[in-house]
Amino acid sequence: MTPTEIEQVERANAEYYDIVERGDYAELAALWLDEESLSCVHPGWPVLSGRGEVLRSYAVIMANTDYIQFILTDVQTSLLGATAIVTCTENILSGGPPPEDGELGPLVGQLVVATNVFRRTTEGWKLWSHHASPVLAELEGEDGDGEGGPGEESPA
Length: 156
What we know:
Layout: H1 3-22, H2 25-31, E1 39-41, E2 48-49, H3 51-63, E3 67-80, E4 83-95, E5 107-121, E6 124-134
Parallel strand pairs: 1-6
Antiparallel strand pairs: 1-2, 3-4, 4-5, 5-6
């Protein structure tokens, strides 16, 4: 396990998010493995299997997303032979269509945790699987018992 390999995987992971931000379907298709064993879970979606189904989902997302930005935090990479797993938190800012011409559309923030699995190929690291789940955090006292949500300290 050399830092160079880890850096290559993390570059491929960052490239994935950059491509989605730009909405470049051709580059996205090139980053995914060219085989049918692919899988993908977008937040709130069922499991998508196979290259056609996975890439079709991105075409739909890209066609219906006016603006999206990912700020990645908590990036951790594990490498075992020709397979790498990257986990991260996606801090997402996305926007819808403007209500009127010349105006900005509404922006929405979302926190998502993701696992991206890559495989080493002769063409570099390729995405094999993407699984993203929304982070559901309660505000302190929201449920009426004074307990905080995940990651929050409970009162002593």
